[in-house]
Amino acid sequence: MRVNVAFLSSDVGRLFRKRFGVAARHFGVTGPQWRMLAAIQRDPGSNQGALASWLEVEPITAGRMIDRLEKLELVERRDDPADRRRWLLYLTAKGEDLMQRMATCAQATLADAVSGFSDAEHAQLLALLDRVRTNLSDDPSLEVNNG
Fold this sequence. Notes:
Layout: H1 5-25, H2 31-42, H3 48-55, H4 59-71, E1 75-80, E2 83-91, H5 93-113, H6 119-137
Antiparallel strand pairs: 1-2
């Protein structure tokens, strides 16, 4: 029986989220909060809508997560000079410190995931996953056959 790539990749993603969620609790945050912090760290100055889209949650859900992270003094909202209705989000010094401490944990989890892989196998895995992502990133409306 052949394993379906969609189910397998979804299961791998679920297992990563589960591992990161367990690790995050040791730092006083949830897995989704860690993902939010990582998204802000990767793209400082993002707004709530962009983060909600990237995390695939509703903007109100992202807003609540940001509220909690702000209360924990991990994130700060700054005025958007281009649009008074929006806030730009940045990690605080405390948030940067937390992400630095959690990075070691993340690296260990990633190393566990590819344990036993040779460097060539690891490179091949990354290349293949990147190709799948590229294939799925193409405009799906061009692929639909209504006939």
